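Consider this record:
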Amino acid sequence: MDKFRKIRAYRTEWLQMIFDWITILPFLRRIARKTTSGIELSYLGERKRIEQDICHGAFFMTNHRDICMDAAWLSERLRMKYCIRPYIGIGNNLFGKWWIEPLVRTLRCFVVIRNVPPREQLVQSQMLSEYIQMLRRKGKSIWLAQRQGRAKDGNDVTQTAVLKMLTLGSEDFFEAVKQLNFCPVSINYEYDPCDYLKAREMQLVRDNPQWKKSRKDDLISMQVGIQGQKGRVVYRLTPSINPEIDELLSRQPEVKELPRNEQIQLVCNMIDKHIHQAYELYERGEEFERYLQQQLAKIHLPNKDEQFLMDKLHEMYEAPVINHRKSLEFSV
């Protein structure tokens, strides 16, 4: 019996390859032409070193801007340039229609099961951790966002729960992390088509802390994220964090004796530093302010707080700039 049956990507290599070339790749390129002014794959640091880091499989940990396009375009670029087709983690909260799950699992996606009772969540996390570790032992590349859901305020920070799940069952935390081979990637959209939806959600939560997104809300975000204008899109690959872990252990061997939660936070900081330093910073002027006004006009709420909403729109675009500046002063 296949213990990973409920979460694994379907084993349809030849079918997937044919489906990709006939349907998926033309679709992604068509969406890119209609919704962007170009998609760039670039590098932070020495390109040759980064290519060596990913040649035997890597764990591409990224910030999260869009539900669908983040992983789709990165996968397409890696496939075209390096013949790498990463396995992609996708939450089952996005399966709002019956056909979505079989489609994405055919497209090399595995399922991250969410919204279950705490005891069952632990079981599911253990299974997912084992599945990902199995893929990495086979030299497969993986994409996963640094956090559950997108950062509404643009403040991209790796959730410790993600690393805790990925290293479940391992006695030596740092060795487990090195085997995963994290190569963080910074994802940058000049314009986030879902920015007004995120601002709307922030006011809804402010006014009612018990408010929760529905599956319909997720489907709307998926549609807007695919079809909306994004401007210039930049994916920036960064080196593996493994040498930094080795340097840390050499310089401060006592960190191996720290509590697991503190070790996890150290690695989260490394991942964040890579992502923040690799941000593409866009010029913002009067035209950008007009764009924000247009996005604000798309928000329909009975008690619309325009000042709050505009502040949130500004914050989500300013946060990467602030984090980038702070990252240049970062030291473990």
